[in-house]
From TrEMBL:
GO terms for biological process: pyruvate decarboxylation to acetyl-CoA. SUPFAM superfamilies: Thiamin diphosphate-binding fold (THDP-binding) (SSF52518). Its cofactor is thiamine diphosphate. Keywords: Oxidoreductase, Thiamine pyrophosphate. This is Acetoin:2,6-dichlorophenolindophenol oxidoreductase subunit alpha. CDD domains: TPP_E1_PDC_ADC_BCADC (cd02000). Transmembrane segments: none annotated. It comes from Jeotgalibacillus soli. Residues 53-326 form the Dehydrogenase E1 component domain. The keyword Cytoplasm does not apply. The keyword DNA repair does not apply. InterPro entries: DH_E1, PDH_E1_Alpha_Subunit, THDP-binding.
Length: 336
């Protein structure tokens, strides 16, 4: 049965924004794959090319970001782990400066000093809190600040399912529950913590079940569904803004690429990714808009062109920007 507009219950402009943002995120990762691999073949050399170091891409995980960021404002805080691009794009981080930062250019968010895993944009209250569960305490701090100031701001911490086994996850949620803070922890269950399957590392079937241990709400979103993620997030944000405390949302999402670029992925069945791509969330939301008359083929094509142009413009901005001068290496790092 196709979903009716009543059952969707999402404003048309929000739905179109979700689609455009998902297209933009996916295309961004496609562009970054090409940029990252430049100079690293035929033998993979992590230090070569215009983007050296590790690169963690979020292709396939777009619903986690758009589903909740559709409900956020500029005043809400988002923290992200080391797979951050879809979160940053959905939160409205400056795409030109973000891309320049990844390329290590002086026009970047951190003037080229942070790179891909340390994106920070105070204009929209976005930061990469580091790997594993390191971003959750930062989000708790933002949520505490909101409560102390009497604001209805929300703090969202994105983590992978492996981070739910880390101390920072439990310590942070205990405090947030105790103080009824406006915190939402979004657990992106992409099935693997690096190369360890969830079944080999986690004692519960889904991490939303852990919410009961803190006396807070939990929700589980199946099948990487952007519509269900939107609806679960809507309720969680409502509770947070009303002073009703934290929520854990776990979404069953799909990492199409390896843990990092260059990952041989020996832990995955060779048919896993092709099978996941058959239910691609971007195709799902596009087909939904078309079948319900929310958008025409021409409109969706225009959305795609606009999204890809933003990415292309950011890429060219980054490539054409200058690298920091050697003598500026310690500027804005240490105070005198």
């Amino acid at each position: 049965m196709s979903m009716t507009r009543e059952r969707i219950n999402i404003p048309v402009e929000k739905l179109k924004w979700m689609y455009e943002t998902m297209v933009k995120s996916r295309y961004y990762e496609d562009v970054m794959v090409e940029a990252y691999n430049e100079g690293k073949k035929p033998v993979f050399n992590i230090g070569a090319g215009p983007v050296p170091g590790e690169m963690h891409l979020s292709t396939g995980q777009e619903p986690a970001a758009v589903g909740i960021c559709a409900h956020l404002t500029k005043d809400d805080t988002v923290t992200s782990p080391h797979r951050p691009h879809h979160h940053a794009i959905a939160k409205g981080v400056d795409l030109n400066r973000m891309t320049a930062e990844i390329f290590g250019k002086v026009t970047g968010l951190g003037k080229g000093k942070g790179g891909h895993m340390h994106l920070f944009d105070p204009e929209v209250k976005f930061s990469c809190g580091g790997i594993i569960a390191a971003g959750i305490p930062h989000a708790v701090g933002a949520a505490l600040a909101a409560k102390k100031k009497g604001k209805d701001w929300v703090a969202v911490a994105f983590v992978g399912e492996g981070a739910a086994n880390a101390g920072g996850f439990h310590e942070s949620l205990n405090l947030a529950a105790l103080w009824k803070l406006p915190l939402i922890v979004v657990v992106e269950d992409n099935a693997y913590g690096i190369s360890v399957p969830k079944s080999g590392s986690t004692a519960v079937a889904s991490n939303d079940l852990r919410a009961a241990a803190y006396g807070i709400e939990g929700a589980y979103v199946r099948n990487n569904d952007p519509i269900e993620m939107y609806l679960a997030s809507e309720e969680a944000v409502r509770r947070a803004r009303n002073g009703e405390g934290p929520t854990i949302i776990e979404i069953e999402t799909h990492r199409y690429l390896g843990h990092f670029q260059g990952d041989p992925e020996m832990y995955r069945d060779k048919e896993e990714v092709p099978n996941l791509r058959k239910i691609d969330p971007i195709t799902k939301i596009r087909d939904l808009m078309l079948s319900e008359g929310i958008a025409t083929e021409e409109e969706t094509a225009q959305i795609e062109v606009r999204a890809k142009k933003d990415v292309d413009d950011a890429y060219h901005f980054a490539r054409e920007s200058e690298y920091p001068a050697p003598e500026d290496a310690l500027k804005d790092v240490f105070s005198s």
